[in-house]
Amino acid sequence: MTRKQKKNLIRILLSGVLLLVVWLLPLKGLWRLLAFLVPYAVIGYDVLFSAVRNILHGQVFDENFLMAVATVGAFFVADYPEAVAVMLFYQIGELFQSIAVGKSRKSISALMDIRPDCAHVLRGRETVTVSPEEVEIGETLLIRPGEKVPLDAVVTKGETSVNTAALTGESLPQACTVGDSIVSGSINLNGVIEAEVKSTFSESTVSKILNLVENSAAKKARSENFITRFAKYYTPCVVFGAVLLAILPPLAFHQAFSVWIERALTFLVVSCPCALVISIPLSFFGGIGAASKSGILVKGANYLEALSAVDTVVFDKTGTLTVGTFTVSEVHPEPAFSSVLTEYAALAESYSSHPIAACILRAYGKTPDPARVHDVQELSGLGIRANIDGKTVCVGNRKLMDTVSAKVSPCQAVGTVVHVAVDGVYAGHLVITDTIKTDAKTAISALKSLGIRKTVMLTGDREEVGVAVGNAVGIDEVHAGLMPDDKVHAVEKLLAEKPPKRMLAFVGDGINDAPVLARADVGIAMGALGSDAAIEAADIVLMDDQPSKIAKAMRISKKTMSIVRQNIIFALAVKVIVLILSALGITGMWLAVFADVGVMVLAVLNAVRALKGTKE
């Protein structure tokens, strides 16, 4: 409990005791009024102050105003015990809400613990401890066991294991040695290492994640916006309704004003919409918190709500359903190029960061001489053109070969085929193979069990490769041989075909798929640990390489939306019933208190369930 919560609890207990004592005292008239004002002042002074302050600032119709008018009005009609009791129960409800929100924020703050406090930097012969914001790219970090990695870096000395659980939700440590990348926010477990900084703190993985989580509450779901608009018009309507209820019936039926004023005050207490205004945002906040604990970062409540309505999931292939770690499985040179095919391919790809380029360089087994390579051009969706030893070498897909009129030899092997042409003459091809992720098939099955109507795979690879992967994991529909803009057109066609009010999600690696991630209703970046493009482009970021996390994210979103609907229906139903009964004089202030504070407490407690996530 915070200091403020403890203070409020003391006020509640003190006011409750004073109320009981005053109730038992044989006081009458002015002395009875003054006696009940004591517990009322103890428990309600802050509400009255907030009501007056908000009125002076033009914010009239809020819960403080309703509580103040209802309880002060109760004093005017001599319902002293009820006036104090209404304020007392209201404060009990506020305390429950505060504790529930605190629990939710604590869940989110657990993620915030990934923020590094300091960085140990090797400068000359000294190790200097500075703030991570002061470290520049290229400097060397010294990271000891138990310390957080302060910045994105590459290991240059030593070996260790790092814990990335706070980022990915995966508790299994990852082994790191010289040449491996480590990301800020992970924890060094058992070895002293040195690492070269690759990004400033503002551009680091940990900084981007923290900004993402901190800003997620600003993006409201449609349900939240509805409640905000509803409360804006609903509150003044019920206030004027209460005024009419206090004035018109006595004038029309010649009855006592005191009876109808009491009914109007009861009407006001019931009408307070705080159960909805508080519990709905708290439900989404809890859902986002539950997702973050599993390594699933949701950029806003609107995306969490949209995810619950997804019925079509579209996948990229490489790095999403497959591991993305390629190997050259076959080399098929033309006779005239049998000794140089792999060498030319490796030299051309030596300036590329693409995974296929890396595997060709591994197959070459030597360090390419950069002096031999000039005028490198990366052609989107085609491949690479470079000048090598004065010759124009093109390395890429069949479409690239067509542009230089190189006659391609057929390939029967299943895999990604990289063709090579030298000065417009076909030199042969390399066959690149990838591995399907171990949980890809389970992930597709889990999605279908959640009611996903259609799963689709889009790939720039050959038809036979795409179909083989699609069949292996259980994808319904495969579109292969696509350029980046073809993927966008394919998603637009699927968007046009989906049922009304249903959503389409695209799942990609976030590096090459930014246009499609942005075009889909919900963009999900897979395996995005350390990927700036993924964190920027996607609506939901999965911080590891497990496709099964997609189904988990959907289960969290569906549970959150179920809680939101339960709270809306329950709160509105109870309030409508009690509003009618109070207007007819069938119920009194005590049931009104339940309809307000009781409903709020139950709705808030229900909303907290979103924090627990879902069972696997």
What does this structure look like?
With 616 residues, the chain is α+β, with helices and mostly antiparallel strands. The protein folds into 4 domains: 3-109 and 217-284 and 559-612, no CATH class; 119-150 and 152-198, Calcium-transporting ATPase, cytoplasmic transduction domain A (Distorted Sandwich); 296-323 and 436-543, HAD superfamily/HAD-like (Rossmann fold), CATH 3.40.50; 327-431, Calcium-transporting ATPase, cytoplasmic domain N (3-Layer(aba) Sandwich), CATH 3.40.1110. 51% of the residues lie in helices and 18% in strands. It has a 7-stranded mixed β-sheet with strand order 10-22-21-20-11-18-19, with helices on both faces. The protein has a 6-stranded antiparallel β-sheet with strand order 2-1-3-9-4-7, with no helix packed on it. A 6-stranded antiparallel β-sheet has the order 12-17-16-15-14-13. Helix 18 links the parallel strand 21 (522-525) and strand 22 (540-542). It is elongated and about 115 Å long.
Descriptors:
7-stranded mixed β-sheet; Calcium-transporting ATPase, cytoplasmic transduction domain A; 22 strands; 6-stranded antiparallel β-sheet; 18% strand; single chain; alpha+beta; Rossmann fold; 51% helix; 20 helices; 4 domains; 616 residues
First and last CA, distance: 31 Å
Helix content: 40-55%
Beta-strand proportion: 15-25%
**Count of helices?**
20
Q: List the domain count as a whole number.
A: 4
Rg of Cα set? 32 Å
Oligomer: single chain
Uncertain spans, ≥5 residues at pLDDT below 50?
A: none
- Which structural category do the helix and sheet elements fall into? alpha+beta
Number of beta strands: 22
The order of strands across the largest sheet is 10-22-21-20-11-18-19
Morphology: elongated
Largest sheet: 7 strands, mixed
Overall mean pLDDT stands at 83
